Amino acid sequence: MGDFYQNGIVTTLHNLCRRPVEELEEELIGFSKTRPMALVLPCLYSELEGPALKNIVTELAKVPYLEQIVIGLDRANEEQYRHAMAYFSELPQHVRVLWNDGPRLRQIDLKLREQGLAPTEMGKGRNVWYCFGYVLACDRTESVALHDCDILTYSRDLVARLIYPVANPNFNYMFCKGYYARVADGKMNGRVSRLLVTPLIRALKKVCGPSDFLDYLDSYRYPLAGEFSLRTDVINDLRIPSDWGLEVGVLSEMKRNYSTNRLCQVDIADVYDHKHQDLSEFDSSRGLSKMSTDISKAVFRKLATNGEVFSQEKFRTIKATYYRIALDFIETYQNDAIINGLTLDRHKEEKAVELFAQNIMSAGAYFLENPMDTPFIPSWNRVTSALPDLMAELKDAVEIDNQEYQPT
User: Fold this and answer.
1) Neighbours of 367 (CB within 10 A)
2) How far apart are the C-alpha atoms of 53 and 358, rounded to whole Å?
3) Could you tell me which of 18, 95, 223, 344 has the fewest CB atoms within 10 Å of its CB?
4) What is the DSSP letter of 227?
5) CB neighbours of 280 closer than 8 A, spacing ≥ 6?
6) Do the Cβ atoms of 192 and 225 come closer than 8 Å?
7) Are strands 175-180 and 240-241 parallel, antiparallel or unpaired?
8) HEC letters along 109-148
9) CB–CB of 145/159 below 8 Å?
10) DSSP 149-197
11) Which long-range contacts (CB under 8 A, 24 or more apart) does 285-292 make?
12) Do 45 and 73 contact (CB within 8 A), yes or no?
């Protein structure tokens, strides 16, 4: 049960009374008449073979207010794309599956690449960017929600609560971030948020001084949540990072483009569990190790655009300050786990903090050595300026794929 406390500079919408999902859906049906809604699902083909997605599809089939569901499918060959088309065919909404590895969308990508506008890295950011481009090209909806396809504890009230703040025409929010307690199977999860992001923000406040941006990031209860919603108009100017900095990058873009009274966060789940990444302490190119480096780089870049000057010496100080704060947080989380009857492995927590501290230094070194790095995928406004017909071509490519491979 959440409380009603408002902290920070972003509005928090709590889950105070466990309102029946049917009541929310009845209101959303009314909102949909003037503000039609879409859902974007970035998806790996492997998730069709995993334990979570079938239940997500079953739950979404019951959702009555969504005008459109857009699924971005990565790492799929033709046979797997055909299987995906059949897999999602039970959904009654207007459903389109983007075959990101198919020849038509590869041709779109090549055209963008020739202009220096294509995403440079494979991954969730690229997938989301193309899905958002298709949503814009269709021009069917005014509000869009996004969530991952690996949520093991999914129920349809998650998407109802997530999209409600940007779908309600009486609210003025342009963007909404989902949050929840990362507790499942008697354990406290969410190590990167708990042990990297919050301690790093607090360390940066100490070392760099007062910052509206850091106060803003610190206002989000779960800044790395993969679930958010926005008004469709927001997408045009949105620059999406292509790496693990996606969530922090999107929050940064919202702060850059909108007043904080147009932004909010909402409690979307009592219990939340999904696929867990390995710490990957011996391979910095994957797992939580890569994630922590990418997130740190994203935060440093944003502070630099705000005028912060970094040096190797300052990064050493940030790392030392972070390390002390993060170790203190472990004590806090351990006590929180004990009073709630949860387990927390202190040794694993400290190993994670040690790795994150190293990666803060690695991220700092990368930042200093690559001053011209451009991690954001260009906004769709820039794409349409350079290639006015590309959005229509993207829509046509998706439509032809979906017609050609429609299950019989």
Assistant:
1) 19
2) 35
3) 18
4) -
5) 286, 287, 288, 289, 290
6) no
7) unpaired
8) HHHHHHCCCCCCCCCHHHHHHHHHHHHHHHCCCCEEEECC
9) yes
10) S-BTT--THHHHHHHHHHH-TTS--SEEEEEE--EETTEE--HHIIIII
11) 288/191, 288/192, 288/352, 288/355, 289/355, 289/359, 290/243, 290/244, 291/192, 291/244, 292/192, 292/196, 292/355, 292/356, 292/359, 292/360
12) yes
Residues of the chain with pLDDT under 70: 1-2
Q: How far is 141 from 37, CA to CA, in rounded Å?
A: 5
> Cβ of 52: how many Cβ atoms within 10 Å?
18
**340: three-class secondary structure by DSSP:** coil
Residue with tokens 């206002």: 219
**What is the DSSP-derived secondary structure letter of residue 262?**
G
Are 350 and 330 in contact by the 8 Å Cβ rule? The answer is: yes
Residue 2 has a pLDDT of 59
Residue type at 224 in one-letter notation: L
Distance CA 61, CA 52 (A): 15
Structure confidence at residue 68 (pLDDT): 98
Q: Quick one: which H or E segment has residue 265? A: strand 263-269
Q: Which amino acid is at 355?
A: L
Q: Residue 304: what pLDDT?
A: 93
Residues 193, 226: Cα–Cα separation, whole Å? 12
What is the rounded distance in angstroms from the CA atom of residue 150 to the CA atom of residue 130?
Answer: 20
The pLDDT value given to residue 200: 98
